[in-house]
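Budget justification aside, the reviewers requested a transparent look at the raw inputs and outputs of the sequence design task funded under Objective 1. We therefore reproduce one unedited record. The lines immediately below are the structure tokens for a 197-residue chain.
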């Protein structure tokens, strides 16, 4: 084979190799870059109709409808008890996780100490029908907590009442408050009860 033919064969081989390597007819044609996708943010829950927070109070994201009120005998008060109530909400649209609780089935409106906790509790529960203050309406054995029976509204916190005797104490959210109507973990209720012996 002549030198001239060897050079031509070598150059031809290089040209074919370069074409295949640089994406000519190669089966490994470069693909367009993939664009990362993000999951859409959950749509915000609208606030309850008729419940407007006091000026300057913020609750964002808005809690889902109330699952119930947790009512407990909180601490001793003379011969009775201070009762306390806290609204519980379901983990709709990952709400509990978004406000710092994790992937729970239900949670409070915000963790203890969160600056929006009070506003979010107000938004979920509304105002008491007897006092007009933010918080639930308290009763004992179906009677108003007006100080005449064994029940007295806490003077500076409507989420609490003072139990001065035995009975079934109930804290109920405003009729304007929205109540969860699903069944996971269970259907919601407007009230919470605690039996004081």
């Amino acid at each position: 084979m002549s030198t001239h033919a060897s050079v031509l064969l070598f150059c031809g081989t290089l040209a074919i190799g370069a074409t295949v390597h640089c994406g000519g007819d190669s089966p490994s044609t470069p693909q367009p870059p993939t664009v990362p996708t993000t999951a859409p943010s959950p749509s915000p829950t609208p606030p309850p109709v008729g419940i407007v927070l006091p000026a300057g109070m913020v609750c964002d994201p808005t809690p889902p409808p109330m699952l119930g009120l947790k009512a407990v005998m909180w601490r001793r008060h003379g011969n009775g008890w201070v009762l306390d109530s806290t609204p519980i909400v379901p983990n709709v649209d990952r709400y509990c996780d978004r406000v710092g609780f994790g992937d729970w089935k239900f949670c409070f409106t915000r963790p203890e100490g969160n600056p929006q906790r009070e506003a979010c509790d107000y938004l979920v529960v509304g105002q008491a029908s007897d006092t007009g203050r933010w918080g639930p309406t308290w009763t004992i054995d179906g009677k108003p907590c007006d100080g005449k029976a064994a029940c007295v509204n806490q003077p500076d916190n409507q989420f609490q009442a003072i139990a001065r005797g035995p009975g079934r104490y109930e804290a109920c959210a405003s009729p304007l408050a929205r109540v969860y109507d699903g069944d996971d973990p269970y259907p919601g209720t407007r009230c919470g009860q605690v039996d004081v012996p």
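The chain has three helices and nine strands. The chain has a mean pLDDT of 83. Computational costs for records of this kind are itemized in the attached budget.
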